[in-house]
Amino acid sequence: MLRRPDGTSIDVTTVDQKINQLMRAAHVTGVGIAIFDKGRIEYLKAFGSRNVESALPLTPDSVMTAASLTKAAFAVVVMRLVEAGALDLNKPIPRYLPKPLPSYPRYADLRHDDRYQKLTLRILLSHTSGLPNWRTFEDDRKLRIHFDPGTRYAYSGEGIDLAQFVVETITGESLTKLMGEKLFTPLGMNRTSMVWQARFEEDFANGYDEYGRSLGAEKWAKPDAAGSMQTTLRDYAKFLSAVMQHKLLTAPTTALMFTPQIYIHSAHQFPSLGTETTAANEPMRLGYGIGWRLYSSPYSTAFFKEGHDEGWRHLALCFEGGSGILIMTNSSNGEGIFKPLIDDVIGPTSFPFDWENYTAYNLLLPLPKLKQHREVVLAPAQLGRLTGKYELSPDVILSVTVEQGHLFVQENDEPKQEYRPDSSTGFYSVNSTDECTFELGKTGLAEALILHLDGKNVRLNRVR
Q1: In what helix (H) or strand (E) does residue 460 lie, and over which residues does it extend?
Q2: Contact predicate 40/318, CB 8 Å
Q3: Nearest alpha-carbon partner for 341 in 42, 39, 10, 65
Q4: Distance between CA atoms of residues 280 and 301, nearest Å
Q5: What are the φ and ψ backbone dihedral angles of 455, each rounded to 5 degrees?
Q6: Which of 30, 43, 46, 433 is most buried by its number of CB atoms within 10 A?
Q7: Domains of the chain
Q8: What pLDDT was estimated at residue 412?
């Protein structure tokens, strides 16, 4: 029997049946579940597939992309450094750097806005920096501060990456090494890393989109505190258990990490810079601590972190006292099971499902039918003129390659996506609804790549 936060129990067989039923109904490829009591892992099981095409099952040790679950792990490492006196949450980050922040190419866009001097690690890790989630979402794809730092909440991956830059500068170590030394090795998280490792090849999961199409694995080559961590159900459950049992941080430091730094009044989590506000969050005291989102549940203070990337949907929800659940899925349909699973297995939690836009699978609108394309055959020379590097922003480069007669597009270190031609310059993704068009110059070589995404046309100039 598994004990719920309210003191009632649920038997393991019922949990297994519920998970299998929800997976089938919501078309979720694979699910890993961990359930905690008094900080200990009491249930750890994986269901479904890690590779549908090869009929390989998902296991508790299958390596998955953690997506934004990475941010919480990074925050704990920062707090360990704070506890050791190596970092100060309140010290303005310019005082950590050998030269002004805008002197670094990645942050040159901030040279005309002195508000960057107000940024601290506390502000960056509580998502109150005023930076966008990602600069690529800006119309001009430039980095800017949208409000005075520390005055309101707006989720920002850019802020987490800036915190990573500061931490790596101060410690003189790469985040890959730092996370290994401060977190993964001490906890025995043997199948976790900030970058892809060859040893993961024996058991890893592909991500799958809403239509069940494989997106492959995300084999990150560079560490990113906002989302590159490769981990497993078992390893991330070890991490959560250690946090709840104060094995990584002292009780006072843990309490500081879970102290609200800002209360959240936005109507929804995304768009992160949306201006619509609501009073609906006030009764639950929805807020953000240092690296974790917080709210008052019917039982105690709750802390949670979600992970959301194409093909990956995760949620870690824990309560003061050591109860909790970890859900990890390799399916873009995964969020559709969060509410019914938590309601049935954990019980009433007052979790802010609406604020997170977590809609139960049975309330979602039907998926639109996929556009039908007529593939054409292009000669090798026609494909070859399209290869090269295309710049979306200084830190986002799309590489176009041709392999065995097929064209692939790759964003930075993310998995390559195959695109097939439906005209001499028009292509469609095999793995998504994305389309693109190449613009040819006078020499016949491509000069630009136009991405057709969500009704928008995004131009990327060829840089080499």
Answers
A1: strand 456-462
A2: no
A3: 10
A4: 17
A5: 80, 0
A6: 30
A7: 2-80+168-363 (3.40.710.10), 380-462 (2.40.128)
A8: 84
